[in-house]
Design a protein that fits this description.
The protein is mainly alpha-helical and 443 residues long. The protein has 20 helices and two strands.
Length: 443
């Protein structure tokens, strides 16, 4: 019984993540080596990436003319630069083993950042000299050790990084670097990392709504706008070699919002018939659901630091806040709030996407344990949902059952985190907005 109690203590006490994280990373390094040595590499997009990069090296700057075996180049310019480096390092893409080793280091580096984000995501009690503004307290303090093993156990995630060499691997790395920087309030680094991730694959735009709300609360208006302008500058800078030749061509290919993927490759909506899947009505329904979820989270969760409604925030965000009020709102943007909002925004977009391919699991696998924990789900429930999701993403080709499980697990996470965070950020005292009104009344 004493041994059982000690095991439960180790599983639940966040202090143990300090030594558990390095052990898990070391174990995963061994697993990566075993995968590379024993599992055959699968060619999907690597050769096409190398062909496209070769055309760039040969001087082609019209984005609409750069093509590969799988079709035209449909990723932003940072993708081209990253794979240009890989092209040179791997002898034009021929040295697959070296490429796999590079992606293994990328995987382990990203995993290290992910675990650091998990360990950093904790509530911070912030006191103020004004008595009317109470401390900010999250209902759960820090991610427990028992969810950390889930970060290294995904078969599909290892496949995406080590056997497929997709550009999503770099994009998700930039996403978690941005989260880590934002958690440490290094706003410039976070904004550059996020924008470079968008410049690698536009899927990261799904995190944009949460990041904008985050910046507009954590920073004074001018600094928040500067951060957003910096993101735009990064996009212009990386696209600059292609803009003079064919600016519209670059935008239409790098950020192709009208692209419709083939039904046979979908992982998430296979249980629908192809006619419904390709219909305009279904696309509108998904877009409406996406907007609806975002509005719900903004109204009930993401504006909690400011203590304002959507209408109040929209009208007052352009008016400079007092120094006292800005400090209070900024302190309420905790590391846990930052990570929860950004990952939730990503999953809302993925839930409402018309099609997901297998590589999109890279954005989900490292988000699921944290968001399920934030939903206040029992540990057995967390492992059950994670296992069901992992099974579904490893079914190839997807089936009606597996796609229904994919959508169901994403829905559980989005709804679960909304319900589970209903008490997060609830203060022992007044909100910043209430404190401001009281202060004005006293004056």
């Amino acid at each position: 019984m004493e041994l059982y109690d000690k095991a439960i203590h180790v599983a639940r006490d966040p202090a143990h993540t300090r030594w558990l994280s390095p052990l898990l990373i070391a174990a995963d390094a061994c697993l990566c080596a075993l995968v590379i040595v024993n599992v055959p590499y699968t060619e999907i997009d690597w050769e096409a990436y190398m062909q496209q990069v070769s055309q760039y090296h040969n001087g082609e700057r019209d984005y609409t003319l750069i093509k590969g075996a799988t079709g035209p180049l449909v990723y932003p310019a940072a993708h081209v630069y990253i794979y240009s480096i890989l092209h040179k390092l791997t002898d034009g893409g021929k040295n697959i083993l070296l490429a796999q080793a590079i992606f293994a280091w990328l995987y382990l580096g990203t995993l290290t950042v992910v675990m650091a984000c998990y360990r950093k995501a904790k509530a911070r009690t912030s006191y103020t000299p004004i008595a009317t503004l109470g401390p900010t307290v999250d209902s759960d303090p820090q991610a427990p050790p028992y969810i950390f093993p889930l970060l290294i156990l995904s078969k599909r995630l290892h496949s995406i990084f080590l056997l497929r060499l997709f550009n999503d691997c770099f994009a998700v790395g930039f996403l978690f670097i941005a989260i880590y920087a934002y958690q440490h309030r290094i706003w410039t680094v976070g904004s550059v990392a996020y924008s470079f991730g968008v410049g690698t694959k536009m899927s990261l735009l799904l995190a944009g709504p949460a990041i904008e709300i985050l910046l507009l609360q954590a920073l004074p208006l001018r600094r928040a706008l500067n951060a957003m302008f910096l993101m735009a500058q990064v996009q212009v800078t990386i696209a600059w070699p292609f803009i003079p030749v064919n600016p519209l061509g670059y935008l239409s290919r790098a950020f192709e919002f009208s692209r419709v993927f083939l039904y046979r490759w979908t992982v998430n909506w296979r249980f629908l018939d192809e006619k419904t899947f390709l219909s305009r009505e279904f696309a509108i329904a998904l877009a409406t659901a996406n907007i609806g979820f975002l509005v719900l989270f903004v109204a009930t969760r993401w504006l909690k630091p400011s203590g304002q409604s959507i209408m109040e925030f929209a009208f007052r965000v352009w008016k400079p806040r007092s120094l006292l009020m800005q400090q209070q709102i900024s302190l309420r943007v905790t590391t846990s709030f930052t990570m929860t909002a950004i990952l939730t925004s990503m999953l809302i977009g993925l839930l409402c996407a018309r099609t997901l391919h297998y590589q999109f699991y890279s954005y989900i696998a490292w988000s699921t344990p944290f968001l399920l924990w934030k939903s206040k789900m029992h540990p057995l429930g967390i492992y059950a949902v994670w296992a069901a999701q992992e099974w579904a993403w490893n079914v190839y080709p997807s089936t009606n059952a597996s796609s229904a499980v994919v959508v169901g697990c994403l829905l559980i996470q989005v709804v679960g985190v909304w319900w589970g965070t209903r008490q997060d950020g609830v203060d022992q005292g007044a909100t910043p907005e209430q404190g401001r009104r009281h202060h004005e009344h006293v004056q």
